[in-house]
Design a protein that fits this description.
With 122 residues, this protein is mainly beta. Helices cover 5% and strands 43% of the residues. The protein is globular.
């Protein structure tokens, strides 16, 4: 069993203006099956279009709301919702709100979480 506290793990920042910060709570070296990442997207921030390689991702909003863009269409994500992104699907995220948006991402297999380790420390 592994128990992780968010404040004890290095926070990394996406190398894009207004990009999210990420804390990998369950890392690929912990499990070959799944990783869990806490993301915070600042107000007026986001993440440009990207894919997650071979990983599937489930986004679980905790606070705030986001626009998840897929196939040229926005979809609003808010607490109480989830979004499943299949391997290879291209998406972008935008937080047009005045407060940060926080969410958990469950990634399987965990290879996409390895990319986050290359982000600079926040």
């Amino acid at each position: 069993m592994l128990i992780t506290e968010i404040d004890t793990v290095p926070r990394r920042r996406a190398p894009v203006p207004g990009g999210p910060t990420a804390v990998t709570l369950t890392a690929p070296d912990t499990s070959a099956q799944v990783a869990v990442v806490h993301l915070e997207i600042p107000a007026d921030g986001g993440m440009p279009e990207h894919d997650h390689g071979v990983s599937e991702v489930v986004l679980i909003p905790l606070s705030g709301s986001l626009e998840l863009w897929h196939d040229g269409r926005p979809r609003t994500l808010a607490p109480g919702m989830t979004a499943h992104i299949a391997a290879g699907e291209r998406v972008s995220l935008a937080n047009s709100g005045s407060e940060p948006a926080c969410l958990m991402a469950v990634v399987s297999p965990p290879q996409f979480a390895e990319r986050l380790a290359a982000w600079p420390l926040a």
